[in-house]
């Protein structure tokens, strides 16, 4: 079972991966890209040593970059290993997806081959998944497309935690190798394009040859390329697009010439496109396909200039990053959601609750005639009416006192709670703390598999019983929390009863009917309270409610 801190570790790793992948795309040359790949393994994946082996034109692999140890870098950088030796290594050991792990029990036969290697020292492993100094882990880098052309191999050593990577670490390393392959391919493509552009500018006597070279690099580039007009009334209009871009957007070249990127970009991304500078500008945004869907792309612009006349046109490199974005969303979802039930986890629950609270309590009191007039004018002026229990804090609106930690124009909807258990008409953010009754006995009698199935079904029933905008989160173990906004005291009590009644019916697991009960405590989120205070209040009310009910009503059936 995952530890409580693992979502935070995954989120931190995701942030580090996002940064190092961003660094891959900002390297200026192939050599910088290769060194950035090696440095990214150290900075973002938790290894102390990393080596990038690049496939040469003759098929052999050369050590092109190294990170983590200056002495080892001086020893093996520039040395070459034969393709046959590398292919042998990539078929040995254990296959972890595209990764290849060779444990020390098998790797001793590789000590005498011609692949450049370094030797690390360390104690013998004390437990099964501890990293051995002679363990080897390789991440092949393949070119995009169906051919799986090998571009190189990343080899890593000495994980900082001293253990072999788990499923999360393997997936992160494999995704990083995939992104590194794209970055290396793009670096080579950019180098070719830059050489073609230099020839266009400087080799006036060989203009036709240079134009042909540019045309081929443009037309046959594996990623999208476009040439757009610069200046004048038609600024930004697409003059020419290659086949890769036409296939990506599902539009023929003749149709593409009717548009500019401003016509194709997603409405939410138009501002980002306009802010992207022409010279060296880069942006990640969505472009529209012919079928009405949108695809995530990375746009990189370069100005092609004439030495005499100045800028002539804009060359745009369009890279499909849909898969990378999907992976990022998946990793972000895994870091913020419970792996068993799919519900938001404790960290995500606290983040959502914290976003609704501020440090200053708000008290709703009787208004004077002048205050009532001011409030009525303010609501009519900005077209916004406020429900009881919520108040807008904005300097220049209803409340002139600044919110601690906020700017002079920050807007925040204050959260207040109903007074007592009597419904006084106040609406607020109800926090329902749910603890299952009798769940431990199910785990003890039928095993954890049955207990997991019960938790999954309870999560489904809770989700079905709330509104679309409400939050159902798993706090841990058999504890759940529901956030429901806009409820009064009676509404919250009714919701607790409905959810309890939804949980009570028998749950069938492997042909066996089991039952659990549920105790609910209702707390209220109010500005001036911390997240922990809100949860603790609901937790205490849940235990009061649990103790007040007869034991027979709390046991699982």
UniProtKB/TrEMBL annotation:
What is the protein name stated in its UniProt record? Diguanylate cyclase CdgB
Q: Which UniProt keywords apply?
A: Coiled coil, Nucleotidyltransferase, Transferase
**All copies of domain GGDEF, residue ranges:** 427-557
PAS domain residues: 210-269
Q: Does the keyword Coiled coil apply?
A: yes
Q: Matching PROSITE patterns, A to Z?
A: GGDEF, PAC, PAS
**Which superkingdom, per the lineage?**
Bacteria
Any coiled-coil regions, as ranges: 186-213
* Documented EC number(s): 2.7.7.65
Q: Where is the PAC domain?
A: 281-333
Q: Does the keyword 4Fe-4S apply?
A: no
Tell me one GO molecular function of this protein: diguanylate cyclase activity
Per UniProt, the enzyme's principal EC class comes to transferase
Entry's InterPro entries? Answer: Biofilm_reg_signaling, GAF, GAF-like_dom_sf, GGDEF_dom, Nucleotide_cyclase, PAC, PAS, PAS-assoc_C
């Amino acid at each position: 079972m995952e530890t409580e801190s693992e979502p935070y570790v995954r989120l931190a790793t995701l942030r580090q991966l996002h940064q190092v992948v961003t660094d891959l795309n900002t390297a200026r040359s192939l050599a910088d890209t290769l060194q950035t790949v090696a440095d990214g393994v150290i900075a973002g994946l938790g290894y102390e040593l990393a080596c990038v082996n690049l496939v040469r034109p003759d098929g052999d692999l050369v050590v092109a970059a190294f990170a983590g140890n200056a002495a080892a870098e001086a020893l093996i950088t520039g040395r070459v290993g034969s393709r046959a030796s590398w292919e042998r290594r990539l078929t040995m050991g254990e296959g972890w997806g595209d990764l290849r792990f060779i444990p020390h029990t098998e790797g001793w036969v590789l000590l005498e081959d011609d692949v450049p290697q370094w030797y690390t020292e360390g104690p013998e492993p004390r437990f099964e998944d501890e990293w051995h100094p002679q363990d080897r882990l390789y991440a092949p880098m393949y070119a995009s497309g169906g051919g799986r052309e090998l571009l190189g191999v990343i080899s890593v050593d000495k994980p900082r935690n001293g253990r072999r990577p788990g499923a999360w670490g393997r997936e992160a390393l494999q995704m990083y190798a995939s992104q590194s392959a794209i970055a290396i391919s793009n670096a080579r493509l950019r180098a070719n394009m830059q050489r073609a552009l230099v020839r266009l500018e400087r080799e006036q006597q060989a203009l036709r040859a240079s134009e042909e070279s540019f045309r081929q690099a443009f037309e046959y580039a594996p990623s999208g390329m476009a040439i757009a007009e610069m200046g004048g009334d038609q600024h930004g209009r697409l003059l020419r697009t290659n086949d890769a871009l036409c296939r990506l957007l599902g539009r023929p070249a003749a149709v593409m010439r009717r548009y500019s990127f401003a016509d194709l970009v997603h409405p939410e991304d138009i501002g980002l496109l306009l802010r992207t500078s022409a010279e060296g500008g880069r942006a990640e945004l969505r472009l529209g396909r012919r079928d009405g869907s949108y695809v995530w792309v990375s746009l990189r612009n370069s100005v092609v200039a004439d030495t005499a006349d100045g800028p002539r046109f804009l060359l745009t490199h369009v890279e499909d990053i849909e898969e990378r974005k999907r992976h990022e969303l998946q990793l972000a979802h895994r870091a913020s959601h419970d792996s068993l039930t799919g519900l938001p986890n404790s960290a995500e629950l606290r983040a959502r609750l914290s976003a609704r609270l501020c440090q200053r309590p708000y008290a709703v009191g009787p208004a004077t005639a002048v205050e009532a007039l001011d409030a009525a004018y303010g609501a009519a002026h900005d077209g916004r009416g406020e429900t009881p229990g919520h108040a807008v804090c904005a300097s220049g609106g209803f409340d002139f006192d600044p919110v601690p930690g906020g700017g002079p124009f920050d807007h925040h909807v204050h959260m207040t709670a109903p007074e007592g258990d009597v419904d006084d008409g106040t609406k607020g953010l109800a926090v329902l703390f749910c603890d299952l009754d009798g769940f431990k006995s199910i785990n003890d009698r039928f095993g954890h598999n049955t207990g997991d199935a019960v938790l999954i079904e309870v999560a489904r029933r809770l989700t079905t019983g709330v509104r679309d905008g409400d939050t159902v989160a798993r706090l841990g173990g058999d504890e759940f929390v529901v956030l429901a906004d806009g409820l009064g005291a009676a509404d919250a009590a009714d919701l607790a009863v409905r959810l309890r009644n939804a949980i009570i019916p028998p749950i069938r697991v492997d042909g066996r009917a089991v039952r659990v009960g549920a105790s609910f405590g209702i707390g209220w989120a109010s500005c001036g309270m911390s997240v922990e205070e809100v949860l603790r209040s609901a937790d205490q009310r849940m235990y009061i409610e649990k103790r007040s009910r007869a034991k027979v009503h709390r046991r699982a059936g």
